[in-house]
What does this fold into?
Amino acid sequence: MDINLVAVASQALNQVSHDFWPIMPELFLLTAASIVLILDVFSTDLDRKLTYNLSQFILLVTGIMIVFQFPSSQDFLYHRHFIHDPLSATLKISMVVLTGIALMFARPYILQRRILRGEYYLLHLFALLGMMLLVSGSSLLSLYLGLELMSLCLYALVAMNRREKLSAEAAVKYFVMGAIASGFILYGISFVYGVTGKIHVADIAAFLNDNEASLTLRFALVFIVTGLAFKFGAVPFQMWVPDVYHGAPTSTTVFLASAPKVAAFGLAIRILVFGFAGALIDWQSLLIILAVLSMVVGNLVALAQTNIKRLLAYSAIAHIGYFLLGFIAGNTQGYTASLFYILTYAITSLGGFGCLIYMAKGQQEVSQIDDLKGLGQRNPWAGLLVSFLFLSMAGLPPFVGFWAKLEVIKAVLNVDGLIWLALVAAFMSIIGLFYYLKVVKVIFFDKAENDTRIRAERSLRLGLGITSISVIALGLFPSQLLEFCKQAFQYI
Amino acid sequence: MNLEAIIFYFFSAITIVAAIGVITVKNSVQAVLCLVLTFFSAAALWLLLEAEFLAITLVLVYVGAVMVLFLFVVMMLDVDFAAMKQGFAKHLPLGILVGAGLFGAIYWVIRFEVFGSDKVAEPAKHTQDYSNVEELGRLLYSEYFYPFEIAGVILLVAIIAAISLTFRGRRDRKGQSVREQHQVLKEERLKIVSMKSEKIDSGDDS
It folds into this structure.
């Protein structure tokens, strides 16, 4: 008997035997969320306290499960639609934590408003499930389905406050833009399948190893990168970002600006690096355009904003620009820097949007920058925590934002011919300093117009505390998180 | 030209004409009916590809259920088409330019030299005892069970989202936040005003 045949047979046997341990966190999350969904229907508790507590408990157990089955190798499972490697586990842990903190911010916010309902928490869980499936997708099919699962939950979360005109507008915009982006990605995928006949990213990588990337394949790549840029909110596909961030309920914006960004990073790394590493030159040049435009437009337009949610939205666009620098570097160091950047940014923006809920007075939300006047005098401790977040976004040492920017710029500097890009990034972050420092100035040096005291719920104080303290703690000791990011990429 | 080619060209022509009809006819109900015709002739094309199950599903699900529902929606909605057509003439040149450019680019990358019948082999014809349903089921429940399950979860989420967004029950509950009430300071509730004590002349308390 041919030895080859034996190898093939044993490989086939391996593929058929299904070990469900690697996908246990996802299975648990899905089952538990479905059970809570039914419990929620029969619950008479108007405050939905049970649903909230159970949701947090589910997140905790899911997180513990992921930690316990942290993989030490790279495995392709379930007919190679699922990949189980340190990268996916790393991303999953961070997304679970981010979702947990986002729910902590959401709880007091929706408690006072008409959007209080059990599904609000459960949609977070299903969105998390989509993100977890997304980051461990290893075929274009499972990646796309994970993306859709996540997006569908996010559309519903944005639309939750549908009686409010701004919210409804944001929801429609987000839905239409998201659908177009998904259409672009799908159209690109159809071309890829047409040319290569493969649906698994590893097969596509092998195809690109043997063959030159044809024009059709590069054309498909343009569609996929465009779809990704839509999802990231990179210029020139950023139109929806300010309106959606502004119009959505603040608690949804908190979530929207954190964990899904990490998931989008996972999607980009799975498609571009795991699948299209052979076409690096092609997507690199596309990303350079996106990165430069995002940094320039995001920072310059943010200067003119008076609404704090829109300011943070434009700052998010600018941050995506910096974040893309790591991808552009096109090596493991760059990807590590990008992961580090997106993780720290997710924490910071979680706190940045969360502090708006923290400072709200009853139903009345903080919308203008001027509303922050005198926060430092009225409530010095809160003022300090909020300014930590803004200073970190600005990229000042000793906050973690500084190390993140430093890492991505270092990654780009190591690539020949891209020094100008590093200079653009450095210059734009100096411009960015202006509007972040303006917020800090308003907090500490402007006279308060009224002296209402902040009365925030315990979970809000805890959420703001965690994000803000971690921003400075990680800034003082960045090496642990950097190591954590590095080990994720040991199999590239 | 054999029979298969004649059927193919017949239904292809109907698909294209009906698809153009969808976006050109003025009456929206007629547009929906055009879309039904497009789906129907596309189903016929799928039959030619020996994908009977998919063809039947397309007719049953899309034509039979989704489009009929869509027809109801279109009839019920009072869409102001005059307002929708505003700015049509203004944006027409740009639209044509972008459309032509995109069409040219797509045509160029999938032209005959790239995807011609000499590059991509014709799929083998199946024997008579080949079952499309069986094959599809085998693939969905073995090789693609993982994506298939995720698709199921997506449908579940769609149900949750739809119910949650259209729920019309009472939401305007008045809750109280005990934790927030605990943080109230005495000064905010009770105002102590210092006043001069005054003497009252007509003292009867003497």
User: Anything to note?
Assistant: Residues 22-488 of chain A form one domain. The first strand of chain A starts at residue 75 and ends at 77.
